[in-house]
Amino acid sequence: MNKLYLYIFSFFVLFFISCTSNTNIKIEPINLTNEHSCDCDGMVIVEYKGPKAQILWKNGKRTLYCEVKEAFFEILDDVKGKRVSAIFVQDFSNISWGSYVDKWMKAEDAYYIIDSDKDGAMGITYVPFSIIDEALEFKENNNGKLLNFKDIDIDVLFNSNELMKTRMIS
Q: Among 92, 96, 95, which residue's Cα sits nearest to residue 112?
């Protein structure tokens, strides 16, 4: 009988630990400095033009990206996507191209101009805006397509990569 109580007690201890293991994680973006590098390619993030992204994973790890499109490849992966706690993107509303500002927003709240004539750190970029009028003005000046977060899927990403190949050839 004592072994049964020990097993039950052990089960509840392990259950409690697993339920409370990540409660101290702050689900908010961090400000970037020249000490932060991109988790995909090692580039110093703030040295390159275009919008940035960061993912907070359920295990508490944070990954940083010099390019929003790179982060979408991560979150749309069938396995990795299930491990995402939050994704933040640099809000380009009222920001001039080429300047770095720690102005972050939740990725799912953004309007995105994709495949515009403006290149980011890795070529064709996805530019997030919190203000739709700013997004439409950017689109008018730089071409591209307006999408919401939920509209960006793996096919959209691959089509952007194909477009980038044609731009490199011409």
A: 92
Greatest Cα pair distance, the chain, in angstroms, is 78
pTM (predicted TM-score): 0.81
Residue type, 71: A
Separation of alpha carbons 40 and 43, rounded Å: 8
Token pair for 66: 């010099």
* CB proximity list for 39: less than 8 A, separation 6 or greater: 63, 64, 65
Distance of CA 135 to the CA centre of its chain: 18
Rounded Cα distance, 69 and 80, in Å: 15
Q: How confident is the model at residue 1 (pLDDT cuts 50, 70, 90)?
A: low
Provide the token pair at 111.
């309007």
Q: How many residues does the chain have?
A: 170
Going by C-alpha positions, the residue among 49, 106, 47, 34 that lies closest to residue 75 is 106
Q: How far apart are CA 72 and CA 48, in angstroms?
A: 18
- Phi, psi of 138, deg, nearest 5: -60, -45
* pLDDT score recorded for residue 55: 98
Domains of the chain, by residue range, sit at 31-169
In the chain, the amino acid numbered 147 is L
| DSSP bridge pairs for 44 | 37
